[in-house]
Amino acid sequence: MEQRGSVNADPAQRPDGRCTQWRNWSGFWILGLCNNFAYVVMLSAAHDILKKQESENATASTSATLDLHLQGGNSSNSSRYDCNPVSTAAVLLADILPTLVLKLFAPFVIHKLPYGFRVLFCVVMATASFLLVSLSTGVWMSILGVIFASVSCGLGELSFLSLTVFFSRDVLGGWGSGTGGAGVAGAFLYSGLTQVGLTPQIALLIMLVVPVAMLINYFFLMVPPPSFPQWKSREPGYLAVTSEDRRRLMDELQEEDKSIPVTEDMNTGPLTFTEKLHVIRGLLKFVLPLGLVYFAEYFINQGLMELLYFPNFFLSHAEQYRWYQTLYQVGVLVSRSSLCCVKIRKLWTLSLLQVVNAVLLLFAVRYLFLPSAWLVFVIVLYEGLLGGAAYVNTFYFISKESEDRHREFAMAAASVGDSLGIALAGLAAFPVHRYFCSL
After folding, report:
1. Residue 394 contacts residue 269 (beta carbons within 8 Å)
2. Is residue 257 part of a domain?
């Protein structure tokens, strides 16, 4: 195996060079940021655009009705929770369902589309989403823009997670940290641009730089290994690395954890449908805890946060909700960046702790026993830490414990876990919202 200290090798060219490792780690960080960016900003941006369209185009009576839904007003609201007429889970479902459908079926056929074309498709879809929502002249165009953002994010996530198998395992930390950064960067950038006086349309047009940055980063910053099939389709199951790279990765795996046996499985043929089902069955120990974490997490975010209102606090209801979401994103960023420092194998522990959070806040909404929003700030920050840790550790251990032939397919298939949990949380939030707002 080539030594890192070789003076005859260019570190930017050697597969294990420090310069190459830094460029690839940074590249995956930027991919995570750009991939999730549109998903983060699209909900609030589409909300603003729709509100403007309805105020301009609707009749007076229809406009008044729609304004109640879009602006959160409720002139007849007698609930002690200061409820919006429609739960925020409605918008969440519109944004997550296309991603969920894509993640359920794409892992079985996505190998027919080479990685280079996948990235180009994600960039086109993200660009189209920003353009459609910013330049829309009707409600249907804004909704279509949100769907495009969802497709771009879903396809990008399962593709880039699969892409990590061609690189050293530390790029998973870069990817996880970047996706966490997208939440904070997207929320602050959109809010900041609109706060200084720019219209939502102009703010979204400025954000077209994000898909361009993804394109430049992928094709010019990252350094894939020679065995990487950039423009060629390949069946999952063919080994993703050359024999030399394979030996290096095996040595690396044994150094990290000597308890995991590493064998020379020379079967390099494509995975059969039966093998894929077998891989999915083995992934349940990872996917179920991840799905449960995200179910509890988004049940809190979309079903309970808007009901955790403290009238005598110095922040308004809208400002309290905005800070809940911001602190949650900060927690996600910190924990998704923690893989280099701590690794947590007991994923069910994170799931149970998140469920405890959901139950605690559910009872807090029902019986109003929390004394101040400050305590909720701490809880939602902790909630974000648990969710981010569950995400990065799930995919780290899938990458570490999957066989070489299964790893690429496993990384893509497991990505359905968080989206399934989010979708179920959105559905569960509707009756909960209706119950509390009827009190």
Report:
1. no
2. no
* Domains held by the chain: number: 1
Which phi and psi angles does 292 have, rounded to 5°? -65, -40
Residue 2 domain flag: no
Crossing angle, helix 416-437 and helix 404-414, to 10 degrees?
20
Nearest to 355 by CA among 343, 367, 345, 347: 347
pTM (predicted TM-score): 0.77
Query: Which of 232-236, 243-247, 356-360 has the least mean pLDDT?
Result: 243-247
Please report which confidence band the pLDDT of residue 291 belongs to, taking 50, 70 and 90 as the band edges.
Answer: very high
Determine what percent of the chain falls in helix, strand and coil, rounding each to the nearest 5: 75, 0, 25
Q: Which domain holds residue 433?
A: 18-239+268-437
Which tokens go with 2?
């080539």
303 vs 427: CA distance, rounded Å: 9
Report the CATH number at residue 331: 1.20.1250.20
CB neighbours of 391 closer than 8 A, spacing ≥ 6? 176, 179, 290, 293, 336, 418
**Is the pLDDT reported for residue 64 higher than 90?**
no
C-alpha of 185 from chain center: 13
Go through the chain and tell me how many residues it has: 439
The more confident residue out of 26 and 195 is 26
State how far Cα 136 lies from the chain centre: 26
- Residue 83 inside a domain? The answer is yes
Q: How far apart are CA 107 and CA 273, in angstroms?
A: 11
Tell which wins on pLDDT, 160 or 239: 160
Residue 248 in domain = no
Q: Could you write out the three-class secondary structure of 88-129?
A: CHHHHHHHHHHHHHHHHHHHHHHHHCCHHHHHHHHHHHHHHH
* Cβ pair 423, 100 in contact under 8 A: yes
DSSP 271: P
| φ, ψ dihedrals at 236, nearest 5° | -60, 135
Whole-number Å distance between alpha carbons of 298 and 380: 11
Average pLDDT, the chain: 81
Angle at 85 between CA 80 and CA 90, to 5 degrees: 125
